[in-house]
TrEMBL record:
Its main location: membrane. This is Core-2/I-branching beta-1,6-N-acetylglucosaminyltransferase family protein. One of its GO terms (cellular component) is membrane. Keywords: Glycoprotein, Glycosyltransferase, Membrane, Transferase, Transmembrane, Transmembrane helix. It is found in: Membrane. It is a single-pass type II membrane protein. Pfam families: Branch. The chain crosses the membrane at residues 20-41. The keyword Transferase applies. GO terms for molecular function: glycosyltransferase activity.
Amino acid sequence: MPETSSTKCPNSIKIGPIMFTTQFLLVFSLLLSLPILFLLAPRIFPPHNPSIPISPSDEQDDLDLFRKATAVAASSSFVTHYPSAHTHFTSKSKKLKIAFLFLTNTDLFFAPLWEQFFKSADKNLFNIYVHADPYSNVTKPKGVFSSQFIRNAKRTYRASPTLISATRRLLATAILDDPTNTFFAVLSQYCIPLHSFKYVYDSLISSKSFDFSSSESGPESTQYNVKIEYKSFVEIISKERRLWKRYVARGRYAMMPEVPFEKFRGGSQFFVITRRHALMVIEDRRLWNKFKQPCYREDECFPEEHYFPTLLSMQDPKGCTKYTLTRVNWTGTRNGHPYTYKASEISPVLIQELRKSNYSSSYLFARKFEPNCLKPLMKIADEVIFQD
């Protein structure tokens, strides 16, 4: 039967011997346009950020806190800051303190171990501050932690700028609270001490040989049994295979011009910094405005691991050791989480291994441990952990 107009496919186009349907052409065109859409998507569609955004009211609360802390620090006559890179001179009449800053969104699983750690310490040599996510059901432990939860805590999410905000909040609270807070140690609920309080205090405050990087640059001077020159123990990594992906997670040019890629750094969010550097952190506005931006790449967005090392590396690289005092095991990491030790692994041998450092006389803290590690850790606390 001859072909008539009624038997022809109404939505087809004949090109030589090949017949294309309109649907086929549409699909083919979409496939061709996918690469273009992929390139333009960051400019067309808003970034998807899984974390809770920092509200304007929370931002204003923080700014008010930071300004108050900065003003109080400036008016304090106890600590004098010289213009050189890492000079810190203190008065003979006051005792220097270490501020222990705990950042958590769960219970403080190892509070009993830390209680033992602080038990033998002179109460005039330390302060404790806890930032607990108010949206989490965190139980306040008794003892040294009971009244140390800060009032202005806000919600926190992993891999988001909220962790930077929480840390800055802790630093500002500690600066505002006590002018004798000299070192600020940021810890999590999964951290444990590896030494006695005395060992930690002496290593930071008076030891001339603890920090290997300082000994390489010459002998340290002391006055009134404290070091005149202090450095911050913050990890600063400049070469890492994922650094570029982390840098462009907000967009290729999002960090410019304040943070060019060659200035972008990585490192642990758990560190021990000096008072002078803590003030640098809470006074900063320029870099914070960049790092608080939402990311397009969720799997490469960990601002809490880049803000602090980038800021301190840019402002005072010689005042930083470039390593952390908190030991972490990245073997078998999963979804950005470090290896988590189990109760069956706790032993005196493990503690000795965790202490070993190529950068200092010893690591002072370690993470990450499952909550059920508490019992075996308490068993070896007095005879192993706190025996230096």
